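Quick one:
INPUT:
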């Protein structure tokens, strides 16, 4: 089947069909034009002979003998080897007859106005004309019939068609061969793409298909392939790092559990010692459970399985509730909490509460004692922006771009994190914000770090806005 054949075969067949179609159209056109040309030449020759005959018959004098008239007509009409002529008087008598091949059919002896006609017998083709003429001395009109034998023309066209058929077959074979060569050569870049794609593996994702030897028509496809390879490479690197980070983060609690258990089992202990060990193990298990829950949340976010509820949320009330939660820790460290502005968004209250809690927790962790944390809410016609600002050491630009990646920490010395910090908070925050069609970014300069969260403005009637 054509649908299952290779691209080279398809292109070869298309080229062959295109060449055959052009040759067939050209051959038919040449044949029709040639036949028209020969027909015009025959009709012109018949018209000229007819006019000359009419002239001879009309200028004869009363004293001209019939024999002399026939000699003039024979000199005019008999010299043409393929011309047959017959002239009849008004009463049906034969004034002149030069039938070289066959008799003219009676149906063509009835004349119109220079009536042209064609006739074919068993082996010959004829083209003729019948006309009424004035014969000097005859009270009524006579009839002139001229007929050309055009059998040689028919033989010429038969030979032409035969050679054209042979040439068409040869051209089809040659075009198929050339089409295969052209298609094979033209598709060589595709073979190169196939080889590169086939050789791709986890260790060679950095390879790219070169653009230099590729035709312009394929460069867009190659750019798409290279872009896909770049995305695969980035995803694989992130997945590899992610797997390594998971193992790294889980190693500490598992190691603690093993150490505590082995120490307790080295000798017989009282019930209190066993309880203390179980409580210690429980803390590590809780940490591992939180980490696994966070990982499941991020996995759902990556696959678009997080579907937030759509309720109206007043951000200023949500932030004020979180300020109450962190107030005691802030007072102990002399940190002042400030809230300014208001705004309403549509989303899931628990998810947005978790995202803002992660931002504030991060700010509390890195804000110096005696400093302040401020939250500003601004609502425009298109977006509601929440900005959290805190003092402290600046974040380098190269870290600010990766700070929302999983398990990423700007300080390599703090890879293990704290007991409850696995480096997933900001990654979860970004997933929550993106699930609400928003965006989050970080800017750090002049000793101040700012986290900006932009949500789309919810659509609601004006009276509803006034009610809220």
């Amino acid at each position: 089947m054509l649908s299952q054949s290779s691209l080279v075969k398809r292109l070869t067949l298309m080229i062959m069909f295109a060449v055959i179609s052009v040759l067939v159209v050209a051959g038919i056109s040449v044949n029709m034009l040639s036949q028209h040309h020969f027909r015009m030449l025959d009709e012109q020759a018949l018209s000229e002979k007819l006019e000359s005959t009419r002239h001879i018959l009309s200028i004869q004098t009363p004293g001209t003998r019939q024999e002399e008239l026939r000699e003039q007509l024979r000199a005019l009409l008999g010299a043409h080897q393929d011309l047959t002529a017959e002239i009849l008087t008004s009463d049906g008598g034969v004034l002149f007859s030069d039938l070289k091949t066959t008799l003219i059919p009676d149906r063509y002896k009835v004349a119109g106005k220079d009536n042209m006609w064609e006739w074919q017998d068993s082996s010959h083709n004829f083209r003729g004309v019948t006309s009424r003429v004035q014969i000097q001395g005859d009270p009524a009109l006579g009839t002139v019939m001229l007929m050309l034998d055009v059998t040689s023309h028919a033989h010429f066209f038969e030979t032409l068609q035969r050679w054209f058929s042979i040439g068409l077959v040869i051209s089809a074979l040659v075009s198929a061969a050339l089409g295969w060569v052209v298609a094979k050569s033209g598709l060589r870049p595709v073979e190169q793409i196939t080889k590169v794609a086939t050789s791709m593996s986890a260790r060679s994702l950095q390879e790219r298909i070169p653009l230099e030897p590729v035709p312009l028509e394929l460069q867009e496809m190659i750019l798409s392939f290279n872009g896909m390879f770049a995305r695969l490479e980035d995803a694989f690197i992130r997945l590899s790092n992610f797997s390594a980070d998971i193992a790294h983060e889980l190693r500490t609690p598992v190691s603690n559990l093993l150490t505590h258990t082995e120490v307790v089992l080295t000798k017989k202990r009282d019930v209190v010692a066993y309880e203390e060990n179980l409580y210690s193990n429980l803390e590590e298990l809780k940490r591992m459970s939180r980490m696994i829950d966070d990982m499941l949340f991020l996995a759902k976010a990556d696959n678009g399985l997080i579907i937030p509820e759509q309720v109206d949320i007043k951000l200023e009330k949500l932030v004020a509730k979180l300020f109450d939660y962190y107030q005691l820790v802030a007072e102990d460290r002399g940190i002042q909490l400030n809230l300014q502005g208001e705004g309403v968004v549509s989303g899931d209250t628990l998810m947005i509460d978790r995202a803002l809690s992660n931002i504030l927790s991060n700010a509390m962790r890195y804000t110096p004692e005696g400093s302040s944390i401020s939250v500003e809410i601004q609502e425009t016609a298109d977006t509601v922006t929440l900005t959290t600002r805190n003092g402290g050491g600046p974040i380098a630009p190269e870290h600010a771009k990766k700070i929302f990646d999983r398990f990423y920490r700007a300080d390599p010395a703090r890879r293990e994190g704290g007991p409850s910090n696995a480096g997933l908070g900001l990654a979860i925050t970004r997933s929550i914000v993106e699930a609400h069609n928003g965006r989050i970014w970080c800017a750090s300069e002049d000793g101040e770090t700012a986290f900006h969260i932009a949500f789309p403005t919810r659509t609601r009637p004006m009276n509803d806005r006034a009610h809220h």
